[in-house]
Amino acid sequence: MKESNIANRNSEIKHRLVILGAGESGVGTAILGIQKNYEVFVSDFGKIKETYKQVLIHHEIEWEEKGHSEEKILSADVVMKSPGIPDTASIIVKLKANNVKVVSEIEFASQYTDATIIGITGSNGKTTTATLTYELLKQGGLHVALGGNIGKSFAQQIAETKYDYSVLELSSFQLDGIETFKPHIAVLTNLSPDHLDRYEYEYSKYIASKFRIVMNQTEDDYFIYDGDDVEIQKWLSENTIRSQKLPFSLVNKVEKGAYIENEQIHIITDNTTHTMPIATLGLQGKHNTKNAMAASTVATLLKIRKATIRESLEHFQGVEHRLEKVLKINNVMYINDSKATNVNATFYALDSMSTPTVWIVGGVDKGNNYAELLPLVNEKVKAIICLGIDNSKITQAFGNVVDMMVETQSMEQAIQVAYRIAEKGDSVLLSPACASFDLFESYEDRGRQFKEAVRHL
Fold this sequence. Notes:
- The protein is an alpha/beta fold.
- The protein has three domains: 13-103, 3-Layer(aba) Sandwich (Rossmann fold); 109-315, UDP-N-acetylmuramoyl-L-alanine:D-glutamate ligase, CATH 3.40.1190; 324-455, Protein-Tyrosine Phosphatase, Chain A (Alpha-Beta Complex).
- Helices cover 36% and strands 21% of the residues.
- The protein contains 18 helices and 20 strands.
- The strands form three sheets. The chain has a nine-stranded mixed sheet, covered by helices on one side.
- Strand 12 (257-261) and strand 13 (264-268) form a beta hairpin.
- Helix 17 crosses helix 18.
- The protein is globular.
- It starts with a helix and ends with a helix.
């Protein structure tokens, strides 16, 4: 770009946007910020991935890595903080002390779209529910995007394409940084203790964070939630929300929402009643039935045809790294559930196992309480392979429950051990119940390494 063009562009700039963290959400926000005539500066305390660096260079966006230039950051009108940065980070504390507005990518980006937003959060099932909802709407002919905590960043999608609908998977960290963000349809899949290390080990603070998804909704909006979840019910009994409630339940009949009767899912909204058999769902298991009920309720609200919903549910095969069957070797099934980053997700995984299981577990503990897994481990797990830098909590929790426990420090080592231990008819399950950042870049990296190591056996 010529210098005169840069000068001309800069003369139109009204506000200074500083972005902390140059990952998917940070770089996407930088692209949208430039498009909306912000003066943009990107700062990452760590090293920026080469692919993201090239995007910043291509868009002529100023950036730095391996540290923060405080003066440049504190001069911001608004700061977009990447989800991984805690509020306790010293630079965030200084920004707030200086009354600089700090928001999430979701908050920043949502002001630049007219799309109908479907926001999906929860401790577990949100990726599957968001992906399934996206498929239902896409198959129903809507011009829809899938983003947020999954795939391409919400901000970049807005910068590049005008969508009519956006399905967003939202983490508690993303919701912590919203002020005006308002989904037309909000979904809360369930609640279980997660990320407690970020919430001062207070479950109530984590729950409050999840419920931020409904805080700006009005009577014209919808809240779809697990009506069987005790913590959700408790919060709703103690707090008022304005949106229309549509619970889904496996055990109770509901006036509006979704419920099960005679092995059929019934979905009831203002103007529509749908039924479909559970037996034909592409994904089996109670938790997946709930995911299907939530996604189908969204699709019904948005007037997707019943036949389209049914066909999409029958053909949907799940998401990568979630109970993904990789290979069967010597009649041993290897299953990748790397996305299970908390105890509750691993509970679902172990509960679904019907063969003796060699369980690969461990990583960065987020304040886990393993007690609820003990009955399942006792019943189903023949050996535990610990995969993490510090496995002391896992050893303490299960050392007396299984006959064999092995500590490993790499995925290749873990798979070699599993291969030696597993016998015909067994399963090898990677379901870590922990974050991945001690030995891997992400849960995706962990899952890919698992699949690669299995294929090399």
